[in-house]
């Protein structure tokens, strides 16, 4: 029997029942400890809708545990999300549906360890990509199944990428929950990534429960303004420079053929020319891509700036780069 959890905000037991005629166990983790939510609060919230879509499509919906990490008016706390994921791991949950995440790169490291550990324990994590079409966490991690909705896709399309891991694109799908709600609000006529995520989880469980094997590797995505900077010098100092820019609000990554991929230090390891080109192409909304590579790789790309970092202070490097580009 699969143990399934959905983590979201503002999940209303009364609203889920109204939409599905099924009672689910709803827990509140907005405080320090997990508490049962039995109050008759009725709210057609983000969490209630996503939970109802999952419930209507599960063969055994009574096995579902719904975890509300905040009410529908509160700001999502990454700390609370991590606590909910840790709770799922301690209770050996097999699948997690989560239609919430963050686009804030500074919050990304906090999600790395817990999602990696949860996936490594055998749990399949389904997470919606941002509806704004920018990279979001934890959906981007390769050990997390990122989900998005597209009208141009038929049924469900599963893809696997060397860097991004498994992703799912959901096409038009039937939902009694959305059919009911769109009579009251036109917003529900077109599903979002959030709505597609619980549906994707249910269909994978029903049709191909063993298709997605989670792996502990690595995922991401540059825009026309991305700056490529060659760093000459210490690898450790290169990583520290990336951390410095991240702390100051500049989305940055270090690409190196001398290091292994490590999301907590914003580092992507590459081993050949194809991977380098592929990474640069994929990370198109990153402000700065720092490069510390073997000299042969620089024949393939044009960098915007070269910085010799040995013997220089972080402040002087930081100011030099900002004065040139920002």
What key phrases describe this protein's structure?
single chain, alpha/beta, 9-stranded mixed sheet, 31% helix, elongated
Explain the overall architecture.
- The protein is an alpha/beta fold and 326 residues long.
- The chain is built from 9 helices and 14 strands.
- The strands form 2 sheets. It has a 9-stranded mixed beta sheet with strand order 3-2-4-1-5-6-7-9-8, sandwiched between helices. A 5-stranded parallel beta sheet has the order 12-11-13-10-14, with helices on both faces.
- Helix 1 (13-20) packs across helix 2, helix 2 (46-57) packs parallel to helix 6 and helix 3 (78-90) packs parallel to helix 4.
- The N and C termini lie far apart (54 Å).
Q: Would you report the number of β strands?
A: 14
Helix content: 25-40%
Lateral strand order in the biggest sheet: 3-2-4-1-5-6-7-9-8
Taking Cα atoms only, what radius of gyration do you get, to the nearest Å? 21 Å
| Beta strand % | 15-25%
Distance between the termini: 54 Å
